[in-house]
Amino acid sequence: MGKSAARATTLKSVPGNSLSGLGAKHPLREAGFTLIELLLVVALIAIASGLASLALRDPAANQLENEAARLSALLESARAQSRASGVAVRWQAQSDDKDAPGFQFIGAVQDMPAGWLTDGVSAEVVGAKAVVLGPEPLIGAQRIVLHLGNRNLVLATDGLGPFAVADSDTEASP
Fold first, then answer.
1. What SS3 class is residue 48?
2. Among 135, 142, 70, which residue's Cα sits nearest to residue 102?
3. 64 domain residue, yes or no
4. Which residues contact 65 (CB under 8 A, 6 or more apart)?
5. Cβ neighbours of residue 128 under 8 Å, at least 6 residues apart?
6. What is the pLDDT of residues 116-166, one digit of tens each?
7. CA atoms of 61 and 152, how far apart (whole Å)
8. Fewer CB near the last or first residue (10 Å), C or N of the chain?
9. Residue 172: pLDDT over 90
10. How open is the CA angle 164-77-134, to the nearest 5 degrees?
11. How many independent structural domains does the chain possess?
12. What pTM did the predictor assign?
């Protein structure tokens, strides 16, 4: 055979026969997300929804909690002043005065505020007209209900401990 005779060869692979040589945007290439990518997206969504729920907390509830903490501190301060001076001290809500709703301390207490920090807050003493704060170290169990709009919060003492926010399950009158 001469030079003119062609030799027959068989190609084992032709261009385009394998998926490994395809680019990322080729329609035959498999597309999808890895498990790590999906877990990362789910975790980010969970964190974002948690932060959003904290940011959407009711401002009236925050204001009422702030008023309760402030009133609790004021009551304990007046209670301490009453014990130190030996003079009886009472706290009374002024719910009948619609122009200037607030409260007053009756007795020998000095420099005590007489109003709420937030407009619309009112209070009522459960089962009495006023809260007795001293001078005895042991006072009776007492409850004060704070109102702001449709929100209520109960401050209570057992007579020995300080005034604190009571659980909503124990809101029955003493």
1. helix
2. 70
3. yes
4. 153, 165
5. 142
6. 988 889 999 999 999 999 898 889 999 999 999 889 999 999 999 999 999
7. 9
8. N
9. no
10. 85
11. 1
12. 0.65
